Amino acid sequence: MSDRTSARTRRTVRTRKTAGERRTAPEVPTAEEPPAAVPGAGPRRFLRAALARIPLPLRGLRPRLLMSFVLVAMASSLGTGALAFREARTGVLQQSQDSVINQFRTSVDAVAPHIPIAPNQADLQSAVDQVLDTNRSSGWRIMATYGDHRAYAPSAGFVELSPEMLRSVRDRRVAVFQRMNVDGRPRLVVGMPVTYTWGEGLETRLSGLVMYLEVPQTTEEGYVEAMVHGIERATLVALCLAVVLALLVASGVLRPVRALRRATRRMAAGHLDVRLDVTGSDELADLSQSFNETAAELERTVRELRRLEAQGRRFVADVSHELRTPLAAMSAVTDVLDLEGEGETGEALRLISEGTNRLSGLVNDLMEISRFDAGAAELNLDEIDLAESVRRTVAFRWRQEQVETRLPGPGELRARVDPRRLDVVTANLIGNALRHGEPPVRLTMGVRVDGAGMAWAVIEVTDNGPGIAEEAMPHIFERFYKASTSRARSESSGLGLAITAENVRLHGGRIRAANLPRGGAAFTVELPLHRDDTDNEADGGTR
């Protein structure tokens, strides 16, 4: 009878599914699914929608740098950890598997020569007991099969074998292993067919006897869990380092950006001499250098413009001053000639007189504007009855039917203002309404208290004309601006509303223009009142 030997095999690594795993079929799109969208359109829309939901403080450069570093660190840590985990897990399980298989093969080789070619139940039980005796401390469970016979050690019962494993040990002459989860615990199952040979160098054949081993892999699973915990701790450390590094980098990047922001705000406030310190040779240094060059050029340009503007103002003031004396003499002469002229000579003298008066008024307006530009305009404040002052202005210049007034009673609205400048404001607004609007021109005065408790004297002048064109509204208080080009040679000099606005601002007040819904223009002046300026604000006239 020939000697029985265990199979000498070439070990091959096969990938097998565990008992708990299942294959799932790929999803097949149905006819009800919508057609495919343009590639990349969905992610872009999703990204825009996600960015729109981010609060504004989190869209700054620091949060973005911090998030970028954290994402990169997380991706690197998880990627490196996953690769290290896979390699280490494979190494641990491979080493454990090889050790168990080699030890099991050695034990079977020692027992196989003593097993008959056609063993019975007792032979199988003896064989599994001998194998278990040599490896009792390893927690092994042994099963031997031959035909319908089954033998177990240390007790009856064995893990259910998969059909793939049963087929492999029946048809192959090598050891077969499979990892399983039994009640949530990992186990390694090894199937080793016993072979025999007839003579020297003859073909090895299967004997029909198969030895099975079931061994727990709790220790190996503990090693794997320890690796997972180690990777988690390393990832947390990497994230903390990434956050620190991101804060340092963000601080270095944002420092020149903050300096640029402060310099820009100072420049916007009028400090054109602001400059940045240029350090380094990176893009931020180039940006700082470009800012300095821009600021220097802007400062030079503004200085030149201010010089030219000052020269223009000085020229206008000098010319106006020089014209004032001869115009006064010319006005006196034309006044005398107006009384003596008759016929065609008198008509010519009247035209000269009108032109001289217009030129004299223009010179006076230019002188007034020059005083505002030079900062020489002063208020001669006096406590007066506003309604009475406005009433005298209207009565001195226009007939009663030309201007409708609605003013408070005598003594009801008093304030400290410059009477001459208030007269100019009232006269210019009413004169502008009579020249460019249609009667009736209405003037109202009252008191308004704003939300902060500040009292304002409100003067409003309205007319029934066509109103102000929308494109002219932003320029209505500019100097020499005329809303209609057809009035380029009108009696108006284009300085009346500009002087009015300057006088109102000199009092700390406000002026605005608007169109009425029913037609016509409305000019509203608001002059600040103090609590002691009026004793009866609530009883003042209405607007």
TrEMBL record:
Residues 7-17 have a biased composition (Basic residues). The keyword Membrane applies. The chain crosses the membrane at residues 236-257. Its EC number is 2.7.13.3. PROSITE patterns: HAMP, HIS_KIN. SUPFAM superfamilies: ATPase domain of HSP90 chaperone/DNA topoisomerase II/histidine kinase, HAMP domain-like, Homodimeric domain of signal transducing histidine kinase. It is an enzyme of class 2 (transferase). It is found in: Cell membrane. Residues 318-531 form the Histidine kinase domain. Residues 26-41 have a biased composition (Low complexity). It comes from the Bacteria. GO terms for molecular function: kinase activity. Residues 251-303 form the HAMP domain. Pfam families: HAMP, HATPase_c, HisKA. It catalyses: ATP + protein L-histidine = ADP + protein N-phospho-L-histidine. Keywords: ATP-binding, Kinase, Membrane, Nucleotide-binding, Phosphoprotein, Transferase, Transmembrane, Transmembrane helix, Two-component regulatory system. Residues 1-41 are annotated as: Disordered. The keyword Kinase applies. InterPro entries: BphY/WalK/GraS-like, HAMP_dom, HATPase_C_sf, HATPase_dom, His_kinase_dom, HisK_dim/P_dom, HisK_dim/P_sf, Sig_transdc_His_kin-like_C. This is Sensor-like histidine kinase SenX3. It comes from Streptomyces pimonensis. The lineage of its organism: Bacteria, Bacillati, Actinomycetota, Actinomycetes, Kitasatosporales.
